[in-house]
Design goal:
By secondary structure, the protein is an all-beta fold. It has strands spanning 11-14, 17-25, 30-35, 41-45.
Length: 63
């Protein structure tokens, strides 16, 4: 994915786990995400995020 496709608070999939987008750096094409399970934050490239249309805002689970 690209930074322009992401929004703060959005749920995404990273390394087969669900995480929330905390902040976006459009110039560097990176995001800070917080893992749903252990609440650890990581800065990663947007290219590492898998587009997962089954996730939606306000819900941290698949439907």
């Amino acid at each position: 994915m690209q930074a322009k496709e992401l929004k703060q608070g959005m749920w995404v999939e990273h390394q087969h786990e669900i995480a929330e987008v905390i902040a976006i750096d459009h110039q560097a094409n990176t995001v800070i995400i917080e893992n749903q399970l252990d609440h650890q934050r990581s800065t990663i490239s947007c290219d590492e995020i898998t587009d997962q249309p089954q996730l939606h805002g306000g819900c941290e689970r698949y439907y």
